Amino acid sequence: MRLTTKGRFAVTAMLDLALHSTKGPVTLAGISARQRISLSYLEQLFGKLRRRSLVESVRGPGGGYHLARDASLVTVADIINAVEESIDSTQCGGKENCHDNHRCMTHDLWEELNATVLGFLSQVSLAQLVEKQRTKPVSVVAPRTRSSRADGPTITV
After folding, report:
1. Angle at which helices 76-83 and 126-135 pack, to 10 degrees?
2. Three-state DSSP string of 37-75
3. What pTM, to 2 d.p., does this model score?
């Protein structure tokens, strides 16, 4: 299955955006500090998310990003598909040529797994993830300041 770090980081960043965008646009620097994802990597991800109309950018002072549509209309599958080609657990990428240029015996099994995973991720909305985060405590790393030590405090929210 092609659920890589790229997909995981994209879902994490979108969840962070949804949680923090109630007060206006959210900066990638803020997401980077809270989630410990490289700023340059976030810029690449958000470029793809913007091209797929999942986020919109706001320029100028106080600018950043916000969701392009309501969180209830954005699924985890939408996010992953925006940054990766597809969710595929077949060895052949769906081309049916993995066993000496022929279909392997387990091809149908992996295709069914793909459909099951995609079906599940298509039913999980960003709004559902936001609600889950708001109802249970999670550890959030406080952004570093000049006076923070390298092993700065962790705040439970």
Report:
1. 120
2. CCHHHHHHHHHHHHHCCCEEEECCCCCEEEECCCHHHCE
3. 0.78
**Tens-place pLDDT, residues 52-74:** 999 999 998 889 999 999 999 99
Residue 58 · residue 95 · CB < 8 Å = no
Helix, strand, or coil here: 140?
strand
pLDDT at 5 over 60: yes
Contacts of range 44-50, beta carbons closer than 8 Å, 24 or more positions apart: 45/6, 45/9, 45/10, 45/13, 45/83, 46/13, 48/10, 48/82, 48/83, 49/10, 49/14, 49/79, 49/82, 49/83
Tokens for 23, please give them. Answer: 């007060």
Which of helix, strand or coil describes residue 154? strand
Mean pLDDT of 9-31: 95
Q: Which helix (H) or strand (E) holds 126?
A: helix 126-135
CA pair distance 58, 22, nearest whole angstrom: 14
DSSP notation for 70-96: -GGG-BHHHHHHHHSS-----TTTTSS
